[in-house]
Amino acid sequence: MACQDIGEANPDIAGTGILLAFAIQGAIAVVLSIYSLFVGLTWQGRMRIINLPAYVWPILKVGDVLTRSPGMLNRHHATFQRWLQFLEGSPPQRTEKGIQKQKLVDEILVSGSDFQSWSGNYRVVADAEERRADTLGIALLIAAFVQIRTNSLYQLHIIYDTASFVAISNCAAIAITYGPFSIKHLIMIIWSGLYLGYTIAFGIRLRSWNEDIPGQCYITSGIAAPGTTHPYVDHIYISVTCLWVIASLYGALGLNGAAFNSTAYGGRITLALNRALDRERQRLEARGIDTELLTQIVPLISLLRVTTPTMPTTPTTFTEDPDGKQIAALLVALVQYPVHLYSIFVMRAMNESHLVQGSSEQDWGFGQVVAVILLGNNVVMLYEGIMRYRRQ
Question: What Å distances lie between residue 57 and 51, 64, 151, 325, 326, CA to CA?
Fold first, then answer.
């Protein structure tokens, strides 16, 4: 028997204003962060910032060797030489105008995200409004915890996807803005703890799935294949997406650590591998087993290790990232955004007609109004930033 009654409506949870406010803020953060990464760079710099030479270089070197010999391929040798010289250029540098534009874009992004103020190098606007936006995601999760026993499973699912937009916005902002550990990072850690706790509580509530009891089921058309077992697939969904969100947030947070560079981490990994191999070699030698292969592995590890110049301190402004960690963090944020966007709006569309008769999610209450006002503030800041950007 299919679920027929998903419970009463709650516009402050699944209302159009709430969903659009979180979804649009996440989209703005992702778009601005990607634009900030490339603004003011030449095409050469843009390729180097995404570490493209590391992937193209072997192909170009092979082509360079093959076209050196006299023959029909020799006419392409100059082309391969030009590309190699192009990729061998200096590290990506921004023009002075590009730096100013990037700071402006970062200011808009950081002030609009849930954890917005970073270092003193940014002139953050509307600070009082930012503090309210900082706590919006936390307030949503706290309210969800308070009503965890009374909200329907449908409402809990909507809250879960809505809260995930907070992580996307923060991941995008953190990935491109470096800075020392601050109160904003602490707020992010608190939010992630609440998010993880809510996910666990939601998973426990899912165990009570019963299509014969109002509020203990929801319509899964469009988000699950017909015939799948519930809540089994629902547990899989929240487990995978929750781990993805937490990993992406702490991965982006790691970009702000002074020790997060290839030299520090590469050295630690190499040292740990060398010690493990040395212990294994001693154990095998004690048994009279030849350890020549292990002896050859150690120098190979050193050759594979990629080193970068060590930075004495973490800069408080944007720093180019030749290893592509920023790109990776942005891609993680970008991948999870359409997943939650699709889930939340399909869930709402499929379940709206199965609410308790007489209740509607189209009604506007205090929660929706506040969410839209906060979004409007961010849109106004975005508009002002675009006008300032065009004047530069």
Answer: 10, 10, 55, 19, 21
